[in-house]
Design a protein that fits this description.
alpha/beta
């Protein structure tokens, strides 16, 4: 979360003819000289930040753009600037959805943001060039302007800001750092200026995820659990931390599988569930059913039919790029979009989805899956135990000892 402007702007010590006296406080409230403990596999981006800071110290005004899905470390990288940029004045802002100018924005930029609604591009660019020096409190001290969630800003404002910096018309040395969130189902916000220093933040590998979890949790889960976690969250660092911290010891040790679907925190659910806003209720309900597990298409069709839904309900979600209808199942654009589609549904919708899926799996002869969904639906314990017992018998008949053992273990938890 980004603090208010009053909390993050560097205070400036009294200055005499020789400039500011005494050490300047760190930017954004950070005092550490190194990257946050939860930031891994971002050496290239940190080096790019250091390079841009160096350009600014020499009187330049570089523009650095951080792009990536929510939770990939853009805000953490901005916070990591605190150490190497202690000699800068810092202004850190966050954009908000909607047409209103954020109340905490400083007047010079707020005026430009308001003017972006009806100003010509060239005029707006010059207004940006005039506004940036007004943010500085001490002449000659370089400025770091960081804006989180910049994709929410009007395109005209973004283009003017980027253009003014890259054209070199800003008279005060300033590093402008824009953090833009991209999602797999949305169009990328363009910046029609060049050259722009661009850092794309992707998901972590298994080895990087193990290092992150070891730093945050105090120890890394078993390698098989790390691999499953990386696959389940698409390598997203913030989701790895949130989901990993909530897992029980038996799951971290690999004795039990990961919960499926994963439970996301409210911020991740909002970020990856934003694509669901405005969809018809039948579409959202159908997505919740599809997200409730790894479901063959025929089983899903039967469950949707019981709920008086159908494949046609997926149309709006397909048009938005949220899902793809494959030959034997439905694929979500991102595993965290799937988790958000399930987690944002009401308890009633989720229970109904599991009940219908339990019936559909049982009708298809897949008793193990039917038992699991019956338990998630809140079916009576006797019914759940009966299904698990039947699954054990089927497994033993097939000499499939491991699945039988799993079902006996699960039946003890029902």
């Amino acid at each position: 979360m980004t603090p208010n402007l009053a909390d993050v702007r560097s205070s400036v010590t009294s200055a005499g003819p020789g400039g500011p006296r005494g050490p300047r406080p760190s930017l954004f409230g950070g005092g550490a000289s190194s990257a946050p403990a939860g930031l891994v596999a971002r050496d290239r981006e940190l080096s790019e930040l250091e390079r841009a800071l160096g350009q600014c110290r020499l009187g330049g005004s570089p523009l650095l753009v951080l792009r990536g899905e929510p939770g990939t470390g853009k805000s953490a990288l901005i916070a990591a600037v605190a150490g190497p940029a202690r000699d800068f004045e810092g202004v850190r802002l966050r954009a908000h959805p909607g047409a209103e100018v954020p109340a905490e924005w400083p007047v010079p930029l707020a005026e430009v943001l308001e003017a972006s609604k009806d100003s010509a591009p060239e005029a707006l660019r010059h207004r940006v060039a005039a506004a940036i020096p007004r943010l500085a409190m001490v002449q000659g001290v370089p400025l770091l302007l960081a804006i989180d969630d910049a994709e929410l800003l009007p395109s005209a404002f973004l283009q003017a800001l980027a253009g003014a910096v890259e054209d070199g018309v800003v008279e005060h040395p300033a590093l402008v750092l824009l953090a833009l969130s991209d999602l797999p189902h949305t169009e990328e916000v363009p910046l029609a200026v060049a050259p722009v220093s661009l850092c794309r933040l992707g998901g972590l590998t298994n080895e990087q995820a193990a290092l992150l979890l070891e730093r945050v949790l105090g120890r890394a889960p078993r390698p098989s659990v790390v691999r499953a976690l990386v696959h389940a969250v698409g390598g997203n660092p913030e989701a790895l931390i949130g989901v990993g911290a909530a897992l029980e010891e038996e799951v971290l040790r690999g004795w039990r599988p990961l919960p499926d679907p994963l439970a996301l925190d409210a911020a991740q659910r909002r970020a990856f569930g934003s694509c669901l806003e405005g969809l018809p209720a039948p579409t959202r309900a159908s997505l919740a059913v599809a997200a409730a597990g790894r479901i063959p298409l025929k089983v899903l069709e039967a469950a949707l039919g019981e709920l008086e839904l159908g494949q046609s309900c997926f149309g709006p979600a397909v048009e938005r790029g949220i899902i793809v209808l494959q030959r034997n199942r439905i694929a979500f654009s991102h595993p965290l979009v799937r988790a958000a589609a399930y987690g944002s549904a009401s308890e009633e919708v989720r229970a109904g989805a599991h009940e219908a899926l339990s019936h559909a799996f049982a009708a298809a002869g897949l008793v193990e899956e039917a038992a699991a969904h019956a338990r998630r639906a809140g079916a009576p314990a006797t019914a759940v135990l009966g299904l698990y017992g039947q699954a054990v018998r089927v497994a033993l008949d097939r000499a499939d000892v491991n699945p039988g053992a799993r079902e006996q273990e699960a039946s003890g938890d029902a």
